[in-house]
Amino acid sequence: MKTSLKFLFSLTLSLSLILTISCGKDDRVQTGELVNVGGGMKPVKSSFTDVTDSTYASKSKPAKKGYPPIGPLPKQEDINAAMSELGKYLFFDNRLSGDDAMSCSTCHDPGKGWADGLPLSKAYPGSLYFRNSKTILNTVHARYFYWDGRLTARDIPTLVRDSITETHFLNMDGRLMFLRLQQVPEYVEMFKKAFGGKEASFGRVLKAVAEFLKTVVSKNVPFDTGKLSVSAKKGQKLFVGKAGCIRCHNGTYFSDGKAHNLGVPENPNILEDKNRKGDERYWRHITMRSFVKFMGVNNFENIRKDPGHYVISKNEKDRGAFVTPTLRELTRTAPYMHNGMLKTLDNVIEFYNKGGGESRNKASMLKPLNLGGEEKKNLKAFLESLSGDEVIIMPPVDSKGKVKRFKYQVIKNWYKVPN
User: Fold this and answer.
1) Disulfide engineering: 83 pairs with which of 23, 129, 154, 194, CB 3.0-4.6 Å?
2) Which helix (H) or strand (E) holds 259?
């Protein structure tokens, strides 16, 4: 009995130490994880509001009021050229989707700011999605990518995996996907070149696409190069001062990585109309309820509004809160907000100038800004200075101008060829 108790105590202590050390790697532990508080293990209530994210704050000196300073993006790390080239082909290849009908570029089109230009994005055939498609430009510098903050962008291969396998995105089975690729001679050679002679696998697909995403970054941004107009310079002062944008849009990525409720009006194209089953609203509502059910939200059958970060934290104060998006390249990513309800940048500025929208959970920091016409013009000029040259990366095209697609080839004497 004593031996068993000693073993149990030792095991508990070891687990506590492991959890404590793991949390030390990332100050912003996830909701539900246990942390050592006053000698006892307690669950974190909200990954955004209860834990300070100091690990990923800018290494430069804090800005006024303690916000991470805005500044140029950090220098890009070295890129594996062969792996990135493979990832580029995969990004545009429909083989990465379950029914071979869509690719990553369907919702992240280079010609549309690496988003899709729609208020609410498309989804896997047979469904429609209920949120705006975010740009993947500069994703490698993000803290979180999804609007609800469910996955860290510090692990890009995992983000790629989720996008490929998620039911309403590409809905692909990784065990099937790499078998498809192994039947394409060009891919066989590209995988060997990128991975030291190794063949295609699900994990290597994720790594290759993630490597390609490192190349999808801003270039020649006026703000980064210091080439601001007089109006933009005045706008920058408003950004960090009177307008208070820096409270949420800070750091080099211009996002605090936290979720806030702004009172953005609901998109009417999401709510089901019982008299018009089968239309766009019906399918988007079905998708939303299916998603929140999967995420463990109670009473999902009666969900009428996007719960936002609540699907992660299960904390009522996070209902209707969404992760702050980057402001970089915003001139190419309209319409705006998680549900595409604000069509233009002028609409966005006016929305904040009025103190946001209406919501019982609205962030208390949102107050009317009382910006005049000239101030709004200058603020817009600064925001536009965060967009650089258009970033267009496309794979080679065929003689008809269509994206080149490698063909499957029948293997001669396939029954005699080693697998």
Assistant:
1) 194
2) strand 259-260
Q: Degrees (nearest 5) of the Cα angle 391, 393, 394?
A: 145
| Helix (H/G/I), strand (E/B), else coil: 269 | coil
Instruction: Give the predicted TM-score (pTM) of the model.
Output: 0.81
Q: Between the CA of residue 90 and those of 64, 123, 221, 322, 408, what are the distances in Å?
A: 44, 18, 28, 30, 15
353-366: pLDDT as tens digits: 999 999 999 999 99
The burial of 130, by beta-carbon neighbours within 10 Å (0-12 exposed, 13-18 middle, 19 or more buried), is given as: buried
Q: Residue 211 and residue 205: Cα distance in Å, rounded?
A: 10
Q: What does the DSSP assignment read for 276-330?
A: STTSHHHHHHHHHHHHHHHTT-TTGGG--S--BTHHHH--GGGTTBEEPPP-TTG
User: How far is C-alpha 115 from the chain's CA centre?
Assistant: 11
Under 8 Å between Cβ of 323 and 131 = no
State the DSSP H helix or E strand holding residue 378, giving kind and residue range, or none if neither. Answer: helix 373-384
Each residue of 375-401: pLDDT tens digit? 999 999 999 999 999 999 988 787 787
Q: With contact defined as beta carbons under 8 Å apart, do 309 and 149 qualify?
A: yes
Beta bridge partners of 41: 36
**Helical (H) or strand (E) element with 377:** helix 373-384
Alpha-carbon torsion angle 185, 188, 194, 195, nearest 10? -170
Average pLDDT over residues 300-313: 94
pLDDT at 81: 96
Instruction: Give the pLDDT of residue 397.
Output: 80
| Distance set, CA 401 to CA 114, 237, 370, 394, 404 (Å) | 20, 46, 51, 12, 8
Query: How far apart are the C-alpha atoms of 72 and 372, rounded to whole Å?
Result: 29
Contact 218, 73 (CB under 8 A): yes
Angle 345-353/373-384 helices, nearest 10 degrees?
130
How far apart CA 70 and CA 61 sit, in angstroms, is 11
Kindly report, residue by residue over 259-306, the tens digit of the pLDDT: 999 999 999 999 866 656 667 888 899 999 999 999 999 999 899 999
